[in-house]
């Protein structure tokens, strides 16, 4: 009898459709589910914690206010990432604090997920530190593409739509980033080589 009361977690799309029907619990669940991920991504676009938090809050306020008119989302995650990027651009321009795509990202740290993807389990502590330093030297535009592709698992076409650039630009930017990492960090060459082969296949 107890098992009958256990409900399977709803998918992102199910929650999205529920909030469109004025379900406040679904709205709250989506917020809790995506807040940390959105904040991590937003912080790579603007090194300003309060601005990123404001952008996230504004985004969800807009979603709730327009819940009955917003379209159905094939990918809620994609919709949120693209919308947050626009919000951050808008708020940053208003405050004249937006860091352009070519600004050096030396003060940014890389996501542990891309580190795990590249180095696996071998000499994790030492390699993680070196890789973090290497990725931190990438221009912000390259770091964003790497994050979206390998950390958030977005497809090339989705990254292009999120960033407002062409798919060719996404591939070129990712290729430059991986090539730079390979050249600057010789100990990562085998891993980067495999990723480049996969990318260009």
UniProtKB/TrEMBL annotation:
Taxonomy, superkingdom: Bacteria
InterPro entries linked: RNA_pol_sigma-70-like (IPR039425), RNA_pol_sigma-70_dom (IPR014284), RNA_pol_sigma70_r2 (IPR007627), RNA_pol_sigma70_r4_t2 (IPR013249), RNA_pol_sigma_r2 (IPR013325), RNA_pol_sigma_r3/r4-like (IPR013324), WH-like_DNA-bd_sf (IPR036388)
Entry keyword annotation includes Manganese: no
Pfam families according to UniProt: Sigma70_r2 (PF04542), Sigma70_r4_2 (PF08281)
UniProt-listed SUPFAM superfamilies: Sigma2 domain of RNA polymerase sigma factors, Sigma3 and sigma4 domains of RNA polymerase sigma factors
GO BP of this protein: DNA-templated transcription initiation
Stated name of the protein: Sigma-70 family RNA polymerase sigma factor
Species assigned in the record: Spirosoma terrae
């Amino acid at each position: 009898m107890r098992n009958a009361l256990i409900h399977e977690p709803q998918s992102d799309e199910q929650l999205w459709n529920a909030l469109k029907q004025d379900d406040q619990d679904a709205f709250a669940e989506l917020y809790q589910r995506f807040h940390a991920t959105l904040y991590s991504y937003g912080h790579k676009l603007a090194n300003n914690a309060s601005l990123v938090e404001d952008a996230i809050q504004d985004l969800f306020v807009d979603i709730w206010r327009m819940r009955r008119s917003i379209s159905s989302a094939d990918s809620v995650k994609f919709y949120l990432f693209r919308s947050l990027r626009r919000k951050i651009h808008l708020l940053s321009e208003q405050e004249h604090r937006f860091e352009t795509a070519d600004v050096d990202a030396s003060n940014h740290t890389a996501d542990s997920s891309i580190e795990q993807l590249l180095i696996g389990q071998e000499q994790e502590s030492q390699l993680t530190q070196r890789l973090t330093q290497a990725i931190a030297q990438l221009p912000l535009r390259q770091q964003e593409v790497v994050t979206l592709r390998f950390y958030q698992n977005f497809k090339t076409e989705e990254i292009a739509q999120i960033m407002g650039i062409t798919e060719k630009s996404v591939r070129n930017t990712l290729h430059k980033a991986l090539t730079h990492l390979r050249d600057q960090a010789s100990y990562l060459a085998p891993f980067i080589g495999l990723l480049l082969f996969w990318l260009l296949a």
